[in-house]
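Quick question about two entries, pasted in order.
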Amino acid sequence: MSELVATTRPRIGGGFRLQWEPAQDCHVLLYPEGMVKLNGSAGEIMRRCDGERSIAAIVGELETAFSASGLEPEVLSFVEIAGRQKWLTWE
């Protein structure tokens, strides 16, 4: 994977599927060996990682949706961690 920058367009990694799980009342990341239950923030970030939106666009959407500002460091940190876990990938 290349360096993570504002123009990076992350997407769900191969072998993983993101879905809303009503029984858990949260987004979950499914993979052949199990499931990762995501907290609210992680779910909101992950559902926007479609390979089309850039980090900057994701941050903008989140800041608008939650009437917040300065979310870029947290989003970058989460995406970096998710990349190390192979949940997300980018070029």
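Here is the second entry:
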Amino acid sequence: MGPAGYGLVDDQFEFTDLGQELNAVRDDPEKLHDRFARHILLELDGLKVLELVEDLHAAGKQTTNDNVKQGLRDQYDMHIDKTSNHWSQMRAWLSEADLVNTGTHRYEIEWSKVEELTGMASDELLDLDGLTDEQRAFLHTLAILDPEGYIQNSAVRKVAEEIHAIDISQSKVSDRILNPLEELGYIEWKNPSEVTGKPNLVRTTEQFDAEILDPVLEDVADRVGIPRHVLRLSFEEVTEQLDSNSTYEKGVALETLAIKLGRLLGLDFAGWRVRGQKTGGAEVDVVMDSIANTFNRWQIQCKNTTDQVRSKHIAREVGLSRTLQTNTILMIARGGVTDDGEQFAARIMQHENLSILFIDDSDLQELDTRPDELLETLRGESKRIQRYKRLSLDNEQTEEERDPQEVLDEYEDEIEKATENTDKTLDLSNFADNE
């Protein structure tokens, strides 16, 4: 891509406004490179390319020219000539601004510098002057929950504590959090019974939507490829769409469910492995990261079927976790899990540094009104896992209590097939076995 392609000159090779601006700071390399990088990020789809690089990392793929081009075609319908070296040039210029390293195919992106140059919102609360950490955490959690009406402030508080790893005392919560945020115009709250100790009810305002929710949702929508208005659907509406007659609608609903669950757990989107739109709404997989205390990579798998999850389905996820380098698997099994599936998961967790969590349809029912119930459910699952990991396998195993590697070996072909897909496409699709 030459100067004209970057918008530095016009058709007569005269400086554009941008070209003149850059020419004026040519003696200040840092300012020059930063301003040019900002132009690439905001005007030449540079942000999309960087997000694609993160998706490739999540998929365990190298960020070669061919993989980047294929990803741009798959995700954004951008068709770049096979002989083009646009990505190499773009990467080199972004490297001049210290945004991307150029030494290997495992590019490291300085997202803090990206946000500094672009003012890009992330799935974190925008920096609002004068707010305490508690107030910021409360507002950010409301942006994630996006309640349709009133919601118990205690539920918001509990989720905020989990996501932001802080303690928010219930004592004088109205003085510390509710009243100040109401005075700023972000929330309205009431005590329906006027009884001390009863949960207060909170709802958001139009000002909250405009100044906090919309910027956060716009960023999430851009990164995950789900329209903003769809992300605003309630869990009840999403669950209803899982049973739609339209495979496209089911696929989008399944993707939305996975993202909403991940955000509710305080996770950051890393990349898709399988998208519901490509499986006819049968299943979806997303990789999300937690960096609250220590790095933890989650593999969220949703199966849209009333059939129970069996050991073969768990085996496939365990096999793929080794490729994706995940250490937590969350399986949303609408129909529940078979006894042999739970036993198999227990044996896997005894042998490997891996946690396998399950939630079913009944766990999804309370998420709109009591989102903290999901956290309680997963705490129970975590305690169950801790018990498993304390146990040791008996020396003699019955046929039903085989070494978990034996069971994984039975599904070696299926795991290998899915892993091959990892090497071929960004979304790592397609397997749609719903048995």
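Reply: The CA atoms of residues 172 and 196 lie 11 Å apart. The longest helix spans residues 206-224. Hope that helps.
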